[in-house]
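This is your field. Pick holes in the following sequence-structure pair:
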Amino acid sequence: MITPTFRALTLGMIAGASSAGNATAQNIFQEVLPPPRLASNSPEPNQQTLETLLPLTRPLLIPTDSASGPIAYFGPDRLQSKLTTFANHALAEVAQGWCDIPIEIPVTPLHVTLLKEGASGQATMTFDRGKMSSASVVANADEARMFGVIKHEMTHIVIRARCGLNLPRWFDEGTASLAEGEETLENFRRSLVTNYLVNGRGISFQALLTMTEPPTGDVTVPFYAQATTLLKFLREQAPGTTLTEKQHYLIRFILSVMHDGASMEAYQSNVRAYFGYPKVSALQSAWLEWLARER
């Protein structure tokens, strides 16, 4: 039951992400013209600067054994030590890489089902008065792909623990998919080259940035692909000398968007303040240009 002080959220993982390059985007939005080259995308002088990074406290420290950390494992006995240790490390790695302040993660049951092929996952969280009060993960995959599924779902938990229940879906799914590694990113990039650059069709940034419900049907793969590659593009654009500094900057950006209502007007002003693009359409053009170079 959803009340003003107690709300639940369930996030899934795109099944069979390694085959994303074979999916076809549904033509539900506008045709996309070749992107113009921007003269400059340097942030404006009055943009927010990185604050002093705070030390991270338990449970964000990497555990020294399989019993450490907040993971409660349910699954095949022979994988318990390996997967519990990995899940705790994943939580710590993501938290230390993305969270600009210490966060609290509740004890997290991890339910593992070993499959012969395929992969899917689900993270379920509840929030009480804006704070995460419980979290659990279901991971279904073959042994080789189980690690990517677990890291994807653990990323959902960390990012939501930092940003809250109303985090925009594209940012949430983009960070989780980036955590899976380069193979997933490459599959998504290949899909976008086919559907966006060759066929000139995809999801508009207005629809992408403001989507609140889980994508379904033919929109699913384009949504994940655009969210993931956009996040990687913004991470490259962010100021900072380390990956952690860049990711902390992205957290501040999305929190500012959320503070302003997560509307298109909020994105317009924050894209300008944090990344120097005059409006979202200029960001979309720059992303398309970057995607073409990556091709």
